[in-house]
Amino acid sequence: MEPFQTPVHCLATANCPHCGTRLATEMVDDGTTVLCAACRHPFIFHPSTDLRRFSRKAVASLALGLASTLFWCLAGVPAVVLGVLALIEIRRQHDRLKGGELAIVGIVAACSLGLICTPILATFLMPAFQALRSGK
Ligand SMILES: [Zn+2]
After folding, report:
1. 23 and 87 within one domain
2. What is the 110 CA–ligand 1 centroid distance (Å)?
3. Residue 90 confidence (pLDDT) above 70
4. Do 68 and 116 share a domain, yes or no?
5. How confident is the model at residue 63, as a pLDDT?
6. In terms of domains, do 71 and 123 share one?
7. What is the 19 CA–ligand 1 centroid distance (Å)?
8. Is 3 part of any domain?
9. CA 80 / ligand 1 centre spacing (Å)
10. Which band of pLDDT confidence, cut at 50, 70 and 90, is reported for residue 100?
11. So what's the pLDDT on residue 79?
12. Is residue 5 part of a domain?
């Protein structure tokens, strides 16, 4: 008895070196010359099978970095710590993890928002400090 067969379409993607368009095609052998659907330039296809997943630390760093608008250093400090840990983790397992950009955005967001918020926080706290000092 003939087993039921379903054709499996495995898509491979690559960027056209001429126009930069991201192209998807059914799995072809690495090094096959293909024609770009956008600019009609032939090019040698090197499929980039990106099976890496985003680092959870990097995602958390980005989320906390953005959350530091509301929670200042409560979110900003862990955002920087997780961002740095994510970058180390991604560098060590670069074939399995991605999201370095997310971690950097998280760190930058946490730092810049922290820097913006610190003077605001200081203007709120200074009168309280002065009141404490003059009260003695
Ligand atoms: Zn092209």
Report:
1. no
2. 39
3. yes
4. yes
5. 93
6. yes
7. 4
8. no
9. 39
10. very high
11. 93
12. no
Cα 35 to averaged position of ligand 1 atoms, centre (Å): 8
Residue 99 lies in a domain: yes
115 assigned to some structural domain = yes
Q: Please tell me whether residues 29 and 79 are part of one structural domain.
A: no
Q: Is the pLDDT of residue 99 over 80?
A: yes
CA 18 to centroid of ligand 1, rounded, Å: 5
Q: What is the pLDDT of residue 125?
A: 80
CA of 11 to the centre of ligand 1 (A): 18
5: confidence class by pLDDT, cuts 50, 70, 90: low
> For residue 29, is pLDDT > 80?
no
Q: Tell how far the Cα of 79 is from the centroid of ligand 1, in angstroms.
A: 39
62 and 113 assigned to the same domain: yes
- pLDDT score for 12: 73
**Judgement on whether residues 57 and 41 belong to the same structural domain of the protein:** no
- Please measure the distance between the N-terminal and C-terminal CA atoms of the chain and give it in whole angstroms: 96
Distance 1 CA to ligand 1 centre (A): 46
Number of structural domains, the chain?
Answer: 2
SS3 readout for the chain: CCCCCCCCCCEEEEECCCCCCEEEEECCCCCEEEECCCCCCEEEECCCCCCCEECHHHHHHHHHHHHHHHHCHHHHHHHHHHHHHHHHHHHHCCCCEECHHHHHHHHHHHHHHHHHHHHHHHHHHHHHHHHHHHHC
Domain around 126 = 53-135
